[in-house]
């Protein structure tokens, strides 16, 4: 397993860790470093038809034949809607200081706009109060892919109007919860929502149109800007945006060329397409050329960049693995990257997760350092990082040593980036609970807590107990799994 092991000045000298029995204490994180976990509404809440909740695009998509493994849906999921108090007590027992959750738009505005559903907001009221009562800071995300179906019927994110409806929804949530919440995240992974939902169709709403994907991407960013401005006007203290970002690494001949066209193109489509408008108020010209070839630029209006480019206090980073590419004339490219024709997406040898994703902790370090260099004005927060493995309960325990190694390696990479100057303020593991994993249904387990979906029993995995030790010492152990 690839890990970051370079020593950095300023680290404390090694001492015997008497509490863990795992060896000597290792890299310590800065005072005040935020330790937490993350989830998303549709993946855990269940209660899909209770208390006035409207239908979302995932309610519809999961019922379409062949779209989700074994016809699974999020109708029940982890039943968090009814078991939130139990789950918060579990968070407190693990020592979490922060909990990132998402608010379900169709719970708050069942039709996507119009009158607020007070019973939907009541749930988040109870959740936030429960978190605060246990000393856990709530970090809500306003959009984690569950668009109200009625808005999709009117065009979804390909319609400019949805961006304005999103801002209205953001204010409605803030009006109820803003007295207790400091940091508001507008969107989670707009690349996924646009290019998996509207481009390749493997996510809801299941459309397959490159032009629709680029339109959706722009309107998601527009919605972010409108919501950020409205939240700030309503008194929100901090605004964040969460992106799925990854280093793009050239392979083969591309590995030897600093200006590899394949690397630049994919980096533009995955990273710069969102970073540059949000943080610099400009579109990357190479990305605009691709957008123009796939449906035109008519959806981009004068003044949009000024709306999108709102001051950000935090950039949320969801990191799982790098993207490996090489130039391959004649290759069709990848359908989730319109404009990647002539590019091959490679799979290097090495360890992978149960998702068949490469395990590359060094990618997190390089990503954090790049962001610190290119966008030094914004604080960084790892809002998702984790791995699915084939977890099994034996004698009431889940010995997920592979996950411990994965997390340890990535935390060492994060520490190395901090030591090199990155303003990384915290780390939120994905995920607190095993849950509904989108098109994979319940077959992929990312949680540090095992969920028996038949009984809803929660079993903290060995990784959860390991993470509790990390949090308690605010650092890692030299003798832990990730060094092996």
From TrEMBL:
Q: What is its EC number?
A: 3.2.1.21
Annotated active site: 384 (nucleophile)
Which intervals of the chain form a coiled coil? none
Q: Could you list this entry's UniProt keywords, alphabetically sorted.
A: Carbohydrate metabolism, Cellulose degradation, Glycosidase, Hydrolase, Polysaccharide degradation
Instruction: Enumerate the residue ranges of region (Disordered).
Output: 1-27
Q: Which reaction is the catalytic activity of this chain?
A: Hydrolysis of terminal, non-reducing beta-D-glucosyl residues with release of beta-D-glucose
An MF annotation (GO) of this entry: beta-glucosidase activity
**Xref: InterPro entries:** GH (IPR017853), GH_1_N_CS (IPR033132), Glyco_hydro_1 (IPR001360), Glyco_hydro_1_AS (IPR018120), Glyco_hydro_1_beta-glucosidase (IPR017736)
Q: Which family does it belong to?
A: Belongs to the glycosyl hydrolase 1 family.
What name goes with this protein?
Answer: Beta-glucosidase
Q: Which organism is it from?
A: Microtetraspora fusca
Classification from the root reads: Bacteria, Bacillati, Actinomycetota, Actinomycetes, Streptosporangiales
């Amino acid at each position: 397993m690839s890990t970051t092991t370079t020593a950095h000045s300023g680290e404390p000298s090694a001492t015997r860790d008497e509490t863990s029995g795992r060896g000597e204490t290792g890299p310590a994180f800065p005072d005040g470093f935020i330790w937490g976990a993350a989830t998303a509404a549709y993946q855990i809440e269940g209660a899909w038809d209770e208390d006035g909740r409207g239908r979302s695009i995932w309610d519809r998509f999961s019922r379409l034949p062949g779209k989700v493994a074994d016809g699974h849906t999020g109708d029940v999921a982890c039943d968090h809607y009814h078991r939130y108090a139990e789950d918060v007590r579990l968070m407190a027992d693990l020592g979490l200081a922060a909990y990132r959750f998402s608010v379900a738009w169709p719970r708050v505005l069942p039709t996507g706009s119009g009158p607020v559903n007070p019973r939907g907001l009541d749930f988040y009221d109870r959740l936030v109060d429960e978190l605060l009562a246990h000393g856990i800071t709530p970090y809500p995300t306003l959009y984690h892919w569950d668009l109200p179906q009625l808005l999709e019927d009117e065009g979804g994110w390909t319609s400019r109007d949805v961006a304005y409806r999103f801002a209205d929804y953001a204010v409605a949530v803030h009006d109820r919860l803003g007295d207790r919440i400091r940091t508001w995240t507008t969107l989670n992974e707009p690349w996924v929502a646009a290019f998996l939902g509207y481009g390749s169709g493997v996510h809801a709403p299941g459309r397959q149109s490159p032009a629709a994907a680029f339109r959706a991407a722009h309107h998601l960013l527009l919605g972010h800007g409108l919501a950020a401005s409205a939240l700030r006007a309503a008194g929100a203290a901090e605004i964040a945006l969460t992106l799925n970002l990854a280093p793009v690494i050239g392979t083969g001949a591309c590995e030897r060329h600093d200006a590899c066209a394949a690397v630049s193109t994919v980096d533009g489509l995955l990273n710069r397409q969102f970073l540059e408008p949000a943080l610099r108020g400009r579109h990357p010209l190479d990305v605009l050329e691709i957008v123009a070839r796939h449906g035109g630029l008519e959806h981009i209006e004068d003044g949009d960049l000024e709306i999108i480019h709102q001051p950000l206090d935090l950039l949320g980073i969801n990191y799982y693995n790098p993207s490996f590419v090489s130039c391959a004339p004649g290759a069709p490219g990848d359908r989730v990257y319109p404009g990647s024709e002539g590019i091959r997406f490679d799979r290097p040898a090495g360890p992978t997760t149960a998702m068949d994703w490469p395990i590359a902790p060094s990618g997190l370090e390089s990503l954090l350092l790049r962001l610190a260099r290119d966008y030094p004005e914004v604080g960084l927060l790892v809002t998702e990082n984790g791995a699915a493995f084939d977890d099994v309960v034996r004698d009431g325990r889940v010995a997920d040593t592979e996950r411990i190694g994965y997390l340890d390696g990535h935390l060492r990479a994060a520490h190395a980036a901090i030591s090199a100057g990155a303003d990384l303020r915290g780390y939120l593991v994905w995920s607190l609970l095993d849950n509904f994993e989108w098109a994979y249904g319940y077959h992929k387990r990312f949680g540090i807590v095992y969920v028996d979906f038949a009984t809803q029993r929660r079993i903290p995995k060995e990784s959860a107990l390991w993470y509790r030790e990390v949090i308690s010492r605010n650092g890692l152990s030299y003798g832990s799994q990730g060094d092996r």
